[in-house]
Amino acid sequence: MKFDELVKSTGVAGRQIRYLISEGFVPPPTGGRTYATYGDMHVRAINRYDRLRSLGFPPAAIRLLLDAKEGIPVPIIPGLTLVIAPELIGSEDNANAIAAKVAEKIGELLSKEAPRVATR
């Protein structure tokens, strides 16, 4: 898609998108300056940045979070921290399905019952 289409599809001002690209929050377009094209990875990067900003993170903190190799730690309750891969934030993946899997795993880990071991 062209730049104008990127602006329209994300709802983010062109000036802001240029800033995000210049600061490295969004990858540069493919095709060079004359034939610049943008795709889903650009939309996801813009959405991820916007989501982190809406959660109150300043740009410097967002840069540190996105550079984290192991993921972004998110405290849930004392003693429980969820680590999320940066590319999942703002991704439109099925949050309900992911939450259900997380809840199931936490239930298994916190249960007093011993896990069932497969026998032959």
Description:
This protein has 120 residues and is mainly alpha-helical. The protein has a single domain (3-110), classed as Orthogonal Bundle (Multidrug-efflux Transporter Regulator, Chain: A, Domain 2), CATH 1.10.1660. 48% of the residues lie in helices and 9% in strands. It has a two-stranded antiparallel ribbon with strand order 1-2. The longest helix is centred in the C-terminal third of the chain and has 16 residues, at 95-110. The protein starts with a helix and ends in a 10-residue tail after the last helix.
Gist of the model:
Helices cover 48% and strands 9% of the residues.
Shape: elongated
Describe the biggest sheet? 2 strands, antiparallel
Secondary-structure element order, N to C? HHHHEEH
The parts where pLDDT drops under 50 for at least 5 residues are none
Helical content, roughly?
40-55%
Strand proportion: 5-15%
Number of helices: 5
Order of strands in the sheet with most strands:
1-2
Number of strands: 2
Query: Using only CA atoms, what is the Rg?
Result: 19 Å
Topology:
Elements: H1 3-10, H2 14-22, H3 40-54, H4 59-67, E1 72-77, E2 80-84, H5 95-110
Antiparallel strand pairs: 1-2
Keywords summarizing the entry:
120 residues; mainly alpha; Multidrug-efflux Transporter Regulator, Chain: A, Domain 2; two-stranded antiparallel ribbon; 5 helices; elongated
